[in-house]
């Protein structure tokens, strides 16, 4: 997420150094282990993390391009971690209630980098009990931490196994095919090429059935992005941080080779996707007219279809990378699933209704968008921690991707470069970041002494700069570890 006013960005970077196997296993999979006792969610742990851990197993050699860094601080043992949400546990002298979070967090909250009045809420995710709060119910601009709420609404409405389709349909009595967008903001050229393969094959089968010698004639190509309604431009206007919100796009409308982070976007992502699709069909010997916008005929029959990854994986990607395009797509998918108009206003109604189903505190809230780029968004720290508590609840296994998608401090996503190797929070803090000019936030989970899993939300306004606010937020989260 970025703020176009001054360019503060949350852009994940790819590290080239090799993590030691023991630290990688603990740091990257820790929160997954913590919540394992709460319910079935095998697909919840991010595949990228599993692959990364496997890739960095003990190979007997360091990375050749750079010296190996210091290993992150060791994490608690697996036994205490698994106990956090599962088995019985006694309150020890290290328990946060015994220590007193007010004494721990109070001095840190006085940091000028957090602005004049930060909001805080800390809860025990096993019991849902609030352990500490300050202005916890005060609605504040959440920036990108609102994506936690967007994810919860989408998973509640659609379920973690839902897949978003992109379809080609054909008019029964005419040589017209229509590329129909289903709202998949993760659609890339590779999957669009798969759709072109399927479409070309189906068109050849049709030609054979019509006794045309197996050679498809020129077909008319139409593209349909009508699933989403209302304004396509985000209220912040044209911006490298988000494409126009359309139900059909490929590569998120990016006009360069970057696949993540800010990039120049097409003003017409749907038309651009159709042009790419036409090129791919041409490569497969299918001649089409230049694509034109339109709607699929009511009597059109399905010709080919590709599906997104399961919603659980899409949510994880959205949270880890702070992906604005996916976030807006998920807000509209929530609207489609609940019968609301798939627009900014309809998505706000739909998200609010789904969060009400989860019984989270909604007083004073506003979900003007799904990504957090809109400064009219308002949520409380209590809302965010309540959503995290629902995600850890055995009664809501469908929400597990919210926990497993959170970036890992010092390891992944928008937290990869936010914690040093010596920080107490490295590998133990998992949190969604939020950054706009003068707005900084952090909300997620941390393994505290005794193996207790805590949920936290820190919201700060009128901050002097992210270079002061972000370290202050990181110190707060790390303090919950020790």
Automatic annotation (TrEMBL):
The keyword Transmembrane does not apply. Coiled coil: none annotated. Residues 41-78 are annotated as: Disordered. Gene3D superfamilies: DD-peptidase/beta-lactamase superfamily. It comes from the Bacteria. Keywords: Carboxypeptidase, Hydrolase, Protease. GO terms for molecular function: serine-type D-Ala-D-Ala carboxypeptidase activity. Pfam families: Peptidase_S13 (PF02113). Its EC number is 3.4.16.4. PANTHER family: D-ALANYL-D-ALANINE CARBOXYPEPTIDASE, PENICILLIN-SENSITIVE CARBOXYPEPTIDASE A. Belongs to the peptidase S13 family. This is D-alanyl-D-alanine carboxypeptidase/D-alanyl-D-alanine-endopeptidase. It comes from Streptomyces kurssanovii. The lineage of its organism: Bacteria, Bacillati, Actinomycetota, Actinomycetes, Kitasatosporales.
């Amino acid at each position: 997420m970025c703020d176009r006013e001054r360019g503060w960005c949350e852009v994940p970077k790819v590290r080239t150094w090799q993590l030691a196997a023991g630290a990688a296993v603990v740091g990257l999979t820790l929160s997954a282990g913590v919540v394992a006792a709460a319910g079935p969610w095998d697909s919840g742990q991010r595949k990228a993390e599993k692959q990364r851990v496997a890739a960095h197993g003990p190979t007997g050699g360091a990375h050749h391009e750079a010296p190996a860094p210091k290993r992150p601080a060791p994490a608690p043992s697996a036994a205490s971690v698994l106990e956090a949400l599962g088995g019985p546990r006694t309150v020890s002298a290290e328990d946060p209630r015994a220590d007193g979070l007010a004494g721990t967090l109070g001095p840190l909250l006085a940091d000028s980098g957090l602005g004049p009045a930060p909001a805080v809420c800390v809860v025990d995710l096993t019991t849902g009990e609030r352990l500490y709060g300050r202005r916890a119910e005060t609605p504040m601009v959440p920036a990108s931490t609102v994506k936690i709420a967007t994810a919860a609404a989408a998973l509640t409405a659609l379920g973690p196994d839902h897949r978003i389709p992109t379809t080609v349909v054909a008019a029964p009595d005419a040589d017209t095919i229509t590329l129909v967008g289903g709202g998949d903001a993760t659609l890339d050229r590779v999957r669009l090429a798969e759709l072109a393969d399927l479409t070309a094959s189906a068109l050849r089968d049709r030609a054979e059935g019509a006794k045309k010698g197996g050679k498809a004639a020129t077909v008319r190509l139409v593209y349909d992005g009508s699933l989403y309604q209302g304004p396509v431009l985000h209220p912040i206007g044209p911006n490298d941080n988000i494409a126009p919100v359309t139900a059909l796009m490929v590569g998120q409308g990016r006009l360069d080779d970057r696949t993540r982070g800010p990039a120049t976007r097409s003003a017409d992502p749907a038309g651009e996707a159709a042009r790419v699709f036409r090129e791919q069909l041409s490569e497969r010997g299918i001649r089409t007219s230049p694509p034109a916008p339109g709607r699929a005929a009511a009597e059109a029959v399905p010709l080919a279809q590709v599906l997104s990854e399961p919603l659980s994986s899409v949510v994880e990607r959205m949270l880890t990378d702070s992906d604005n395009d996916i976030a807006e797509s998920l807000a509209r998918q929530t609207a489609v699933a609940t019968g609301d108009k798939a627009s900014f206003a309809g998505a706000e109604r739909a998200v609010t209704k789904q969060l009400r189903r989860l019984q989270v505190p909604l007083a004073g809230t506003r979900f003007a968008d799904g990504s957090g780029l809109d400064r009219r968004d308002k949520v409380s720290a209590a809302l965010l921690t309540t959503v995290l508590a629902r995600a850890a609840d055995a009664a809501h296994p469908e929400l597990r991707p919210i926990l497993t998608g959170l970036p890992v401090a010092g390891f992944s996503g928008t937290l990869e470069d936010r914690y040093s190797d010596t920080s107490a929070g490295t590998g133990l803090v998992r949190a969604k970041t939020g950054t706009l000019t003068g707005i900084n936030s952090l909300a997620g989970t941390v393994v505290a002494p005794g193996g207790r899993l805590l949920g936290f939300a820190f919201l700060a306004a009128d901050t002097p700069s992210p270079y002061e606010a972000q370290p202050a937020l990181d110190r707060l989260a790390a303090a919950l570890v020790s």
